[in-house]
Write a structure and sequence with these properties.
The complex is a heterodimer of chains A (581) and B (78). By secondary structure, chain A is an alpha+beta fold. Chain A is 11% helix and 25% strand. The termini of chain A are far apart. By secondary structure, chain B is mainly beta. Chain B is built from one helix and six strands, in the order H-E-E-E-E-E-E. Chain B has a five-stranded antiparallel sheet with strand order 3-2-1-4-5, with no helix packed on it. In chain B, 22% of the residues are buried. Classes of the chains: A alpha+beta (581), B mainly beta (78). Chains A and B meet through strand 20 and helix 8 of A and strand 1 and strand 6 of B. Strand 20 of chain A pairs parallel with strand 6 of chain B, so a sheet runs across the interface.
Chain lengths: 581, 78
């Protein structure tokens, strides 16, 4: 066994050339630092242009989106028609107030026993279920069976025939007694549906609002077959003659008996700002006066008829003067519309607690008075408008004052019915004066029928803008003449009732029409009969005057008809026209 | 709008009745006057201090009679 001592060699290894080795494993240098970092950077968005293909869709048809918007309230002005009713008889006492008094409290004692009598306690009504499932029986056969048909009854008695004796001791009756059957329902399977009616053609629902004119201005196309209402009757061409001869017919009678009155001189007049026709007459004697003197039934009504034009007048007062041996009396009368004003009508105070239309305000005042209102707010004007709650208040005013206030707010005038109990709200200027050249005229006055004329120059500044505003409610509107700078303002208009732009525009036209160079032309002409033009020229009518040196147009401001001479037969009509230069 | 109505003619002759709306620019409590800026920009001094500065006021014949609301404004050509 060879044993060698092998020792040493197990000492810890020395670190040789540690510097070189450590240099071998040093961290690698970023040799391509510049290029490799760039190549691994965030990818550039290469398809920017194609990414926008997935963007939000563009609004191609923005205009077509509007059909699904909110619906415009078309009948906004008329929605307040369905407001609450005003309590009219609030002051009247309710007569069914007190409960009935018991008079016989001591002796009479009413016994109220809701129980039925003892004998009827057991008579309950039989409510049985009807027979729904059994086979149906033949009612006709049952009826047939129940009929009693007496006949010879034969029995078999051991070969011997039974013969009923002539004086029978016993009778046989084989009557069929119908059983009481429950009711059998027929056709129980058929069920009628009572649901709500189906809604078809929802989109073609008819609008039942008031009719609207399609042509706001009257076009020059004649409609010979048009049977509908014509609100502005255009003027007929007057007949130009060498001589006009009119046999005037005048009559003055007391209604309702139509007793004639002896009158010598009369006059009838109205101007555009008043709501009644005024009437004065000189009457011949005491007999006629007694016929029209007011009595217990109130003032008398007379009827004046001149060449077919009829007026009704309430005789308000008379005056007399006497010097032996003669007496003279004069009468003063007004249209019956005066019954809506002082001293006949009661005064009222109110404030509107709901939205209300101007037209409703006027109609409310005429309720139970017998008078009717004409206000064509669509074809003729003035426009109707909504007055918000609380905007319209008045204190101690007569109905006519209230209506006049509404009319004045919109620039309208009140026309009384000459012979009827009605009032008409008319625009003061149906067309603005600067548009009269193209507007429809109601009367044509040729110079040939004008006997006398006069004129009066009344100028005003040439305003071209007007500020029309409400006070506590409403709108503020600057009404400006088209084509002007709006640098000449008319006095501001501040009215409680200016609550809509439409009516503010109408009021602004009236305010602007105050300005400018104006002339009041007085024309005297005969009062032609009804069927001949021009007949009676009423205030607020637009007239065309054909003078020798030119044609001009104007608004009639006042009409006066004087009747004098023997039998009051010299009739003269005097009109005053507002002419804008 | 000429008229031949005697009452309307008489009313138009009466003084006063000038009513306007303006904005209160300043209030002088000592003298009891307010400076009002009218719609066209001119300023007037009106008696009365009831309306605070910056709000609209009704002015009648040189008197501040009360506050005025701000109404919606429209322009209309006729």
């Amino acid at each position: 066994m060879i044993t060698s001592d092998v020792s040493a060699g197990w000492r810890p290894a020395t670190v040789e050339q540690i510097d070189d080795v450590s240099a071998e494993w040093s961290p690698t240098l970023p040799s391509d630092a510049g290029s490799s970092t760039l190549s691994w950077d965030t990818a550039s968005p290469r398809n920017m242009a194609s990414a926008s293909a997935w963007d939000r869709m563009g609004n191609l048809d923005p205009a077509l989106g509007a059909p699904w918007g909110g619906i415009d309230p078309k009948e906004r002005d008329t929605d307040a028609l369905w407001g609450d009713l005003n309590p009219i008889d609030g002051a009247k006492p309710v007569r069914w107030d007190h409960t009935s008094q018991s008079r016989d409290q001591l002796r009479l004692r009413l016994q109220w026993n809701p129980k039925p009598a003892q004998k009827d306690m057991s008579n309950g009504q039989a409510f049985q279920r009807c027979d729904e499932f059994r086979e149906r029986y033949d009612a006709a056969q049952e009826l047939q069976n129940s009929l009693y048909a007496p006949s010879l009854v034969s029995f078999n008695f051991s070969g011997d025939r039974y013969t009923p004796s002539t004086a029978p001791v016993v009778f046989f009756q084989f009557r069929y007694v119908r059983p009481v059957r429950a009711i059998q329902p027929v056709e129980t399977r058929t069920q009628d549906g009572w649901g709500s009616a189906g809604k078809f053609d929802m989109r073609s629902a008819l609008r039942w609002g008031p009719g609207r004119p399609k042509d706001p201005e009257d076009v020059d196309i004649p409609y010979p077959d048009y049977p509908g209402p014509i609100h502005i009757i255009p003027a007929e061409e007057p007949e130009i003659l060498e001589t006009y001869m009119i046999a005037n017919s005048v009559s003055l009678v007391v209604l309702p008996d139509r007793t004639p009155l002896q009158a010598t001189t009369m006059s009838v007049s109205r101007d555009i700002d008043s709501f009644v026709w005024q009437f004065t007459a000189q009457i011949a004697g005491r007999t006629s006066l007694n016929l029209v003197r007011p009595d217990a039934n109130g003032p008398k009504t007379v009827e004046l008829s001149v060449n077919g034009h009829v007026w009704h007048f309430l005789i308000e007062r008379y005056s007399g003067i006497g010097k032996f041996p003669s007496e003279h009396f004069s009468l003063t009368g007004v249209s019956r519309v005066q019954l809506l004003a002082e001293p006949y009508a009661p005064k009222r105070s109110a404030v509107n607690t709901y939205d209300i239309n101007a037209r409703q305000v006027a109609e409310d005042q005429l309720l139970y008075t017998g008078f009717t209102l004409n206000w064509n707010s669509i074809d003729v004007g003035p426009p109707d408008w909504t007055i918000p709650a609380g905007a319209f208040t008045f204190q101690d005013l007569t109905p006519m004052q209230i209506i006049a206030r509404v009319a004045e707010a919109v620039g309208a005038v009140i026309k009384p019915g000459a012979a009827s109990d009605e009032i008409t709200i008319l625009p003061r200027y149906r067309d603005a004066p600067w548009n009269w050249g193209t507007s429809l005229m109601e009367k044509i006055i040729p110079a040939q029928v004008v006997g006398e004329w006069g004129s009066e120059w009344s100028p005003n500044p040439e305003w071209n803008v007007c500020y029309v505003s409400g006070t506590s409610h409403g709108v503020a509107v600057d009404v400006r003449r088209t084509g002007t700078a709006g640098d000449e303002p008319a006095p501001d208009v501040l009215d409680d009732l200016v609550t809509s732009t439409d009516m503010a525009r109408h009021r602004g036209i009236v305010e602007l029409a105050k300005g400018g160079n104006q002339e009041i032309v007085t024309l005297h002409l005969p009062l032609f009969p009804v069927e001949q033009d021009p007949g009676l020229i009423e205030p607020a009518m637009l007239c065309e005057v054909r003078e020798i040196d030119g044609t001009w147009r104007g608004l009639n401001l006042s009409t006066e008809i004087s009747l004098d001479g023997v039998g009051a037969t010299r009739v003269k009509q005097t009109i005053r026209l507002e002419r804008h230069h | 709008m000429a008229t031949v109505n005697p009452w309307k003619k008489f009313i138009s002759l009466l003084p006063g009745g000038v009513r306007a709306v303006g904005t209160v620019a300043s209030v002088n409590a000592t003298s009891g006057m307010s400076t009002i800026t009218m719609r066209n920009g001119t300023q007037i001094a009106a008696r009365g201090i009831s309306v605070p500065v910056g709000t609209k006021a009704f002015v009648e014949d040189g008197q501040v009679v009360g506050p005025a609301p701000n109404l919606p404004q429209y322009d209309v050509e006729v």
